[in-house]
Fold this sequence. Notes:
Layout: H1 2-14, H2 23-35, H3 39-52, H4 57-69, H5 78-97, H6 102-114, H7 118-131, H8 136-160, H9 174-201, H10 206-220, H11 226-257, E1 277-279, H12 282-286, E2 289-291, E3 303-310, E4 316-323, H13 329-336, E5 340-341, E6 344-346, E7 349-360
Parallel strand pairs: 1-7
Antiparallel strand pairs: 2-5, 3-4, 3-7, 6-7
Helix pairs in contact: 2-3, 2-4, 3-4, 4-5, 5-6, 6-7, 7-8, 8-9, 8-10, 9-10, 10-11
Amino acid sequence: MRYLAGLILAGCLCLPAQEPVDARGWLNQGVSHFKAARYPEAVAAFERAAAMDSTNPAARLYLGTAYMQQYIPGATSPENLLNAQRAEEQFLRVLELEPQNKIAMSSIASLNLNQKKWDEALGWYGKVIAADPSSADAYYTLGFVAWSKWYPVYAKARKDAGLRPEAPGPLPDAAMRQSLNSQYGPMLQAGIDALNKAIEINPEYDDAMAYMNLLIRERADLRDNVAEYQQDVASADQWVQKTLATKKAKAEGRQSSLGMPASPPPPPPPPPNQPARIRIGGNIQEAKLINRVPPAPTSFRGDVVLSVIIDRTGSVKEMTVMQGHPMLIPSAMDAVKQWKYQPTLLNGNPVEVATEVTLKF
């Protein structure tokens, strides 16, 4: 009898786990796979849940999110683009069931943004704002899109005019200024208005402040007289200072909450021989940042840590990813490569700097 009981027990232990019998069971299984980052398995489970209960938006929402998790911004493989397409299809199905579902609208907006479909992104973020007028992130993204559409045109205009990136002053050709102002002036103002709204909703929105600096500073190059140009530049400089002050206050608040000193200690004195490169802590080096392009907004949250080499002129020379979610890394690197720092001097001579940059999404 004991032998028979042992065989029965062994047989029971070898039986495969039973599949869920209803939509709720498949939904729960999909959530378990999703939390473990097993996205293809999560997709299969959510598809079963959606097939069993076609009127429940939750399965479609999870299914779209699982596809979206597998989409890598910037990658152009057919498989990657298909993940974005399938994700958007599921979010649209959610909106058929719940027309005011803010998660579905925000997700479609983010997908279009990450694919640089600027006009589509503007439309969807407009819908997000209509559903949630207090969404500072949506207003911020409108400002980011305005800058993204404008900056390539602006950079080309300066290059065509023979202006170096570091050379201040408005575009020298009056006809060019008038043409660009006519075509892009309303869009720049709309971006500035949207960023103002984001900061009104969230007074500590430092990324919105940084883009406010960029839009106003670049708009200055379209001005027809020196006074207006100087007024825009002065306003942009104020936004730089507000950005830095806000970031500093946030950093000090985080340090205080952890029981850390508010200000880091100064770097040690340099050795007698002048090195070609020195290492400086990220918090200290951040104080030298004079042009900070924020990363593109995304619906994902997390940190990206980059190891960065800054050359003698203050430009970012090299970057290495130390940690971060794959969905956030492209946006982080695209932003940081455009950053500009004050040159670091050692004994009166410029040197390269090795530091770390942490971007919070």
